[in-house]
Each structure stands twice: as structure tokens, then as C-alpha cells.
Amino acid sequence: MATGNNLAAEEGLSLVARVRKRTVVAWGLWDWGSAAYNAVIISFVFGPYLTTGVAKNLPEGSLSGPTWLGISTGIAGLAIALLAPVTGQRADAGGRRRRSLAIWTGLVIASTFGLYFVKQDYHYLWLGLALFGIGSVFSEFAGVSYNAMLPQVSTPRTIGAVSGFGWSMGYFGGIVLLLICYVGFIHPDMGWFGATAEGGLKYRMVAVFAGLWFLVFAIPVLVAVPEIAPGPRSQRVGFFASYRVLWHHLRSLFRADRNAVFFLVASALYRDGLAAVFSFGAILAVSVYGLNPGSVLIFGVAANVVAALGALTAGFIEDRVGPKPIILVSLGGLVTTALALLFLHGPTMFWIFGLILCLWVGPAQSSSRTFLARLAPVGREGEMFGLYATTGRAVSFLAPSLFAVFSGVFDSDRLGIIGIALVLLAGAVALSLVKPPARMQPVPLDAAS
Description:
Layout: H1 2-44, H2 46-54, H3 65-94, H4 97-114, H5 125-148, H6 150-153, H7 159-186, H8 201-224, H9 239-256, H10 258-287, H11 293-321, H12 323-341, H13 346-375, H14 381-394, H15 398-409, H16 416-432
């Protein structure tokens, strides 16, 4: 009889493991699909089309396309900073995390489809900027709900590997989609569905294709991951009252676990440096190291491969050593490689050391997510990831500003690297003072009340 019970228990555990694996894959497919917005729309295809194609013939005396895009994303960043924690808190309290993910993802996809109407004429620039700003806000909100699901689809022993898997899926999704868009729309004179360069049609068709891609791969997580239970009735309040609840939680968090607050500050610093690596990498590749635009796109594909492998590998190591060592080693690698690039010249050296740089980016991003997931009180993950988004936006000016200071004062784009390296170093120093998170998530701060 005991043997029969043991067999039944083993079969039950095996079934649970298989179900959890399917859930993890479904969760990771959202990251795969979101690459449509991050890699194609923002970074490599539609963003450059908007700032150099649509804005090409702006009236004399007008601000440049990149400057207008900076204003648009700056306004979007302010909206995210003000609203992200409350949207996360309300989703947690109302038991609507999955529904929130569905709504925000749908709005990102709708804004992406809207880019089809942005023709290659500066009169359409304002429509493009508005859609970019709106899409950025909704994308960040969706990311808050998605990241908050991490403890739902993992265990304390596997959270690092699961986070690394999701992050690598995002990189690999970007690789595949970029290659499809390049072969199907960008490279040929007449792409799929008769898309040509006239009126920017090939880029507008890429936006439609990217929206469909995100739509298809966003569905599994909404089916496979169950909705969370509602929080205490006292937390389910109106929109403006949510700020009062948020303020109460912040004070409780600071009194009970200042370590979490310190991590939010430290991670805001180095995450700004990581963002700057992506923002200025393509610019430096062309202006300093001599890559042509076509080579930059191919480098982007290779960089995603390397970053994905780094995130995936580090995720398994993290479950043994914890997220803090992974982040510190990655930041050290980033600073060292960035400083090496100061003294190197030519496309070959950029390819070698640029890919080494990307190797450290994925682990730093993935382990930061698990660090916070381990710190977040149970049932408050959405709120904590909302604060994560807010603190990141609060210092998002720092690395770009220091890049501009060093490149402007010394009249050298190359020396702008020093500004980015300083922000990464400051984040590493701040993180070194933060205690590593426990293996288990803390209970809600108000559980006793």
C-alpha cells in the first residue's frame, strides 16, 4: 500500500511539474511577443523611420526629429512615474492582475497598429509621436503586471531560471522578428503584400506585422496563468484614494524593510545606465567605430543572441548563488568593457567588445527582476514593480545627461562612454550596500492587521 501511495505521489508531482512548465512557457511567450514593440518599433525599425524619415523635411527652425521624440518619451516617462505604482496596486488589490495585463497589452497593440497611418511626411510626425508616447506608457504598465506574475509561475528555488528564461525569450523573439521584417519588408524593393518605400509603406507594414506578432504570442499567458485572489477589502478603493493607500504602503515598507527601498534606488541608477547602453550603442557604432547602418542591424541581431544566452545561463547560476552576485559581476563586466571601448578603434573591435558588453546586459536585467520579486511582499508584487518602474523613470535623465556632458565638453562622442560607465559604477556601489533578498517572499506588511 505504501508503495502504491508513493507511486501516486510521484505521478502527482510529475503532473504538477509538467503543468508548471507549460505555464512558464506560456508566460515566457509574452516576452517573446513583446519584442515586437521593444526591438522593432522602438529600437531598430520604426523609431529610426519616424525620426529620420517622417521628420526629414521639418520646416526650417524646427526642433529635430530625435529631439521631438525625446520630448514625447519624456512626457510618457512622467505619466509612467505618476501612474505605474497605482495601476499595480489597484490590480493587486482587486485581483485583476491578468485582466490588467490583457488590457494594457491590447492598448499597446492598438497603438502599434495605429502607426500604419504615419506616412513619410512631417505632417504625420505628431501622430507618430503621440502613438509612440501612448504605446510607451501602456507598454510599461503591461510590464508591471507581467513582472508581478513571476512569483506565480516559479518557486523560490527556480525563480532565477524562470526570469532568465523569460528575458531570453524576449531577446530571441526580437532576433526572429527582426530577421523576418528585414527579409520580408525592409531589404527587398517590393516586400510582402506589395510594400514599397513610397510613403514609408514598408515601415508602416512592419508596424502592422509587429502588432499581429505581439497579439498572437500574448494570448497564452492570459489562458495559462490563473488570476490572483483579491486583496483585503480595505485596499479596494477608488482611483485617487489609491494614492493614499500607496503612501501608507510606502511608509510601512520603509519602516519594515528599508532594504527594499534601498534596492529600488540602487537599481534605478544602474538600470538607467543599462538603458543608455541600448540608446547610444547604435549611435556610437556608426559615429565612432565606423559601422554602416546595415551592419548595425545585423549587430543588433547578434547582440540579442549574446544577451539572451547570458540571461539564460545566469538565471540557472542565480538560483544557486542569489541575484546580487550576478548583478554585481555583470555591472563590473559592463564598466570594464565600456572603459576598454574608450581606447579601441574600428568595426572589428566594436564587434568583439560590443558583444562582450551585451553579454553582461541580459543577466543584470533578469536578476534585477528576480531580486525585486524576492523582496516583494506576497500579494503586493504589482505595486512593487510599479514602484520599480517609477524609480527607474525618476533618474532616467542621468546617464543621457552625463553622456551629453562628457561628449559635449570634450567634443567627442567616444568620451560620452565615461558618463554611462559612471552611472553603472554608481549603481554597483549602491547595490553593494543592499542586503541580498531572502529565498522566500515576505508576508504582506499588513498581514497582522
